Amino acid sequence: MRHHPRYQRSWRPPRHGAGMGAVIGAVCFHVFANFPDAAALAHPADGVTRALLLAGPLALLGRDKKPLAVLAVAGAATIAVATQLPPSWTYAVAPAIALFTAVRTGRGRPALAVAAALYTAYLAVTWVFAAPLGVSAAVRPGIRDAVLAALGLGMAMVLGGASRSRAAYIAEMTKVNAERARARQEQERRQASDERLRIARELHDVLGHHLSLINVQAGVGLHLMDNRPEQAREALTAIKTASAEALREVRAVLGVLRPEEEAAPRQPALGLDRLDDLTADAGLPVSTITTGPKRPLPAEVDRAAYRIVQEALTNVRRHAAAGAAEVAIEYAPAELRLRIRNDGPAAPPQPDDAGSGSGIAGMRARAETLGGTLSAGPLPEGGYLVAATLPTAWGDKS
Fold this sequence. Notes:
The chain has about 400 residues and is of the alpha+beta class.
C-alpha cells in the first residue's frame, strides 16, 4: 500500500524532547564506546573513522523529515566504520534508531528494502570483497556477528511497528472520547432547549387561557357595574379565581422541569411535606433523615426538592440493583441540601458520569434554575449518590 505523506504525518506521535535525546544517546554509544578503538588505529584513516562515528548520530537530526535518507546515511556510515573497527553493536545504534523511526512513521516497506540493501552491503564489504578492499581480518565479522546484526534490524522494525500501532490506538481513542464528550454536550444542550420550548408552550397556554377569561369577565363587570351590581360581583369573583389559578399554574410550570419522556403530572407539583407518600411508593425500602430546624420553604424550592428526590428514587428503581435507599434533608440557614443515596454494587467511576442520562440532566436543570447545584455519580464503596443544594435565603424573607 502506498503511503501519502500527509497520511503519514497524521499518525506521527508528538516528539517533545525525545528527538535530541535519541541523538545524544546515539552519540554517547558511538563516541565513548568506540573512540578508544579508533584511537588505536595506526593508519591515516583514524580521523575519517572518528568522523564516521559521529556522522550516523548527527544524521538522526533529520529523521522525522526524511527517515529513509537518514537510514541510508547512518547505515552507510556504520558500514564504513565496520571496515575499520572490530564488530560491535555500539556503532550500529544510529541506524537502528533511524530504522525504528522509518517504520513508526509508516514507511515500513521501503525501510525494509533499505535495511536489506544495507545489510547485504555490510556482508559484501566485510566478507565477499574484504580482501580486495583491504579490510583487516581482525575487523571482519563472524557468523555470530552477522546473525546478531540481522536480529537487531528485525527487532528495530518490530518495535517501530508496535510504536506506530500504539500511536494509532491512542489517536483513535482520543478521537472517540472527544466525540463522546461532544455528543454528550450536544444532548444536554438539546434537552435544555427542548425544556425551554416546553415551558414556553405551557406558559402560552396558561396565560392565553386565563388572561382571555379575565379580559372577558372584566368587560362584563364594567358593563354591569352600574345596572346589575350583583352580576358584576360574580364577574369580579371569576376574575379573582382565574388570576389565582393562572398564578398557580405559572409557578408549577416554572418550578417543575421534567424530561420530555416523563409523564405530565395530573395534579399540582407536591412539596417535601408529602415526602412520606413518595418514599412509601418508591418500590424499595427508603429511610428519611431530616436535620436542622424545619421551616416553610419557597414554593419553587419546595417543588424542585420534591421532584429531585422523586427523579433520584425513580432512577434507583429503574437502573440500580439496590436493596434500599436513603434520603437526607438538611435545612441549612440559607439553603436546602439533599442527598439521595442507594446501596447498589460498587462500580468504577466513569468520565463525566454525573452528566449522563436525561433524568440527571433534568434534575440539574431544576437546581440551576433556582441558582443551586446538583452532582451525581457512583461511590467508591458502592452505591450511587445524588447531592443537590438549593438556596432558600431569598425566599425566607417573604
